[in-house]
Predict the 3D structure of the following.
Amino acid sequence: MYESAEEINDLLCSDRQALFDAANKIKIQHKGRRILLRGIIEFSNICDRSCSYCGISCRNRELERYTMKDEEILSSVKRIASSNIDTVVLQSGETGSLDDDRLAWIIRKIKKTHDNMAVTLSVGEKSRSSYKKWKDSGADRYLLKIETSNPELYRALHPGMSLENRIRCLSDLKELGYETGSGTMVGLPGQTLLNIAKDILFFYRSGFEMIGTGPFIPHKKTALKNEPAGDIDLVLRTLAATRIVMKDINIPATTAVGSLSAKDHRFEALECGANVLMPNFTPSPYRELYEIYPNKSG
C-alpha cells in the first residue's frame, strides 16, 4: 500500500528491471495475459482550447479543420466491429460547437447496430447534463486526461482553463456511472519527479478505472516547440509505478509511447504494466489532420 507521494517517488527511483518485473507480475495477477483492443475514431479536430503542448490547439491557424459526417463515423465503427474489437473510442478536440444531441444519436445508433459494443467518449470538459445525456444514450466510458495534478503547472500549460473544473468533470463522470479514465504526460517543462508521484497518488485516491501515461512530444506549431521530448525510461517507470499502486486498472500502451522515437516502445510498455492497445480507425484524410503531436504511429 502506497499512502504518500514520497513513497511513490521512491518507487519511481527503484531498480528498473525489478520495477518492471513487479508491475508485469501484478498486471498478470489482476488482468491476465490478454491484451484489450480499443478502436479510436478521431471524429473532429476542432478545438477551442489553447493548450501550449497540443498541435490541434486553436492557436494553430495553419491546421485544416474537419468534422466527420455521421455516415463516416458509423462506417468506421463498422470496420472496428468487423475487426472483432468490442470498444469504440469517439475522440475530438474540446469545443463548445459539439452538438450534444447529435453525439447522443450516434451513441444510440452504435449500440443498436452493434451488440456488445462499448462506447468510450473523449470530448473534453462538458456540463453534467451533457454527460448525463450521453450516459442515458448508452455511453459506457469516458476518458479525460488531466496531464498534471499540480495547479501551477496546469495553469501554465492550459491558458484560460481551470484544474478545479477538470476535477469537477471527472467527479461528475464517476457519479454518473461512467467507467472513468484519466492520465498524465511525462516530461512536461517544469515537471518534477515528485509531481509525477503526486499525479499517481491523485489517480489512486480518485478511483479511476483507466490511466494513460504518455511522453511530452514537442509540436512545431506550439509554444513548447523548442522544449526537449519526454524521456522514455521515465515514461515506462511511471506506467509501471501506476500499475503497482493501482493494480486492477486498464493501462494503455499509448500511441505517443510508440511515436517518441524510431523504435516503437509500446511493446516494452506491455511488458511493464500496460494491457491495452488502441488502434486508430480514423480514415484518411482526417487521420493526418488530427496531429496532437508529430510523427504519430499507425
Summary: Residues 142 and 180 are 5 Å apart (CA to CA). The chain has a mean pLDDT of 96.
